[in-house]
Amino acid sequence: MILITGATGNLGKATMNSLLNNGISANNIAVLVRNEFKSEEFKSKGIQVRIGDYNDIDALKSAFADVDKLLLISSSSDIKKRFEQHQNVIDAAKETGVSHIVYTSFDMKDLRGSDMAADVQYHADTSYYLKQKGVTYTLLNNTLYADLIPVISGNNILTEGITIPAGNGKTPFLPITEMAEAITVVLTNTGHENKEYVIAAETALSFAEIAEIISQVTGTSVAYNQTDKTSYIKQLVQVGVSQEDAAYLSRFADAIANGEFDTNHSDIGQLLGRSSMPLKDFLRSKYGHNKA
Ligand SMILES: NC(=O)c1ccc[n+]([C@@H]2O[C@H](COP(=O)([O-])OP(=O)(O)OC[C@H]3O[C@@H](n4cnc5c(N)ncnc54)[C@H](OP(=O)(O)O)[C@@H]3O)[C@@H](O)[C@H]2O)c1
User: Fold this and answer.
1) 3-state secondary structure (DSSP) of residue 60
2) Which of 55, 86, 176, 288 lies most in the core, judged by the most C-beta atoms within 10 Å?
């Protein structure tokens, strides 16, 4: 039995779909859901729903009964508590006899040394904890989702251009669907025990290059506007992002500008047996319908 945590989220859903598309039977898949109201979609597919919150170790122990491989998708709640939540999942999994834990970590040059370490170092702490725990693990160090590009690039980019204080920093953005495919390979094959992979595109691109690609696929000239951090936060708040989340995204923009995601390593070809999807194809699927 494979259990996916964070199954109601973007990466969890994409992984569930990828497992099903790869012929894994629904009755060999379970999901951890913290809110029972969100379980209907899984039940209708024949997937087992286990209820549990990362904060509740007893519920996690019950939820992990009969689970062989567990995909721990990093928490999205309360950054300060995430490491503790992940420890709960790892401890409960080990105690319940889960044989292999796969953790979705994060790919940056130095998680602990980053200016945004307070936002990301829980990944380093979780990875270290998992490695020390004595249970078979695989670490998947995910880069930034390509799916974030429309969220962080500003409003109405086809008319106003891309506006983000990301300088000339390059990022190997990868679509969530491809990350899910790589996770599926690890969950459904042997040979990945106690290994660590970088889940990133083979090519890193700057926002100037992304603007150029969007110009090509839409036939509309899209500028790249450098902006300052304060204006960027204002811009995000204007479209309904909370002040806290806007400040958080601005720290990502800073890290991009500093080249912190440009780690120059990718294991996606090894895992998928092919190159990653060119970002141009992803951007065409997002913006190409706007072609003049
Ligand atoms: N690489 C990147 O670019 C990137 C971008 C954003 C986030 N991330 C990280 O990667 C993770 C997955 O990304 P995503 O886009 O799939 O995130 P997402 O859509 O926000 O999904 C997060 C999932 O975690 C679950 N969750 C949160 N707190 C929990 C708790 N206390 N107990 C049990 N489940 C809990 C959520 O359940 P509910 O549905 O009940 O809320 C949801 O299923 C995020 O959580 C975050 O740590 C990475």
Assistant:
1) helix
2) 86
- Give burial (CB, 10 Å; 0-12/13-18/19+) of 229: middle
Q: pLDDT for 81-101, tens place per residue?
A: 999 999 999 999 999 999 999
The whole-number pLDDT of residue 155 equals: 83
Q: In this structure, is residue 182 part of a structural domain?
A: no
* 135 and 233 share one domain: no
- What is the tally of structural domains in the chain? 2
**Shared domain check, 152 and 117:** no
How far does the centroid of ligand 1 lie from the alpha carbon of residue 74, in Å? 6
- Please check whether residues 218 and 259 belong to one and the same domain: yes
222 and 91 co-located in one domain? no
Which atom number of ligand 1 is nearest to the Cα of residue 6?
Answer: 43
**Among residues 23, 191, 26, which one has the least CA distance to residue 7?**
26
Task: Indicate if ligand 1 lies below 6 Å from the C-beta of 272.
Answer: no
Q: Is the dihedral of CA 210, 215, 220, 221 positive or negative?
A: positive
Does 192 reside within a domain? Answer: no
Q: How far apart are CA 39 and CA 173, in angstroms?
A: 30
Measured CA to CA, the distance from residue 261 to residue 204 in angstroms comes to 9
Are 44 and 14 in contact by the 8 Å Cβ rule? The answer is no
3-state secondary structure of 203: coil
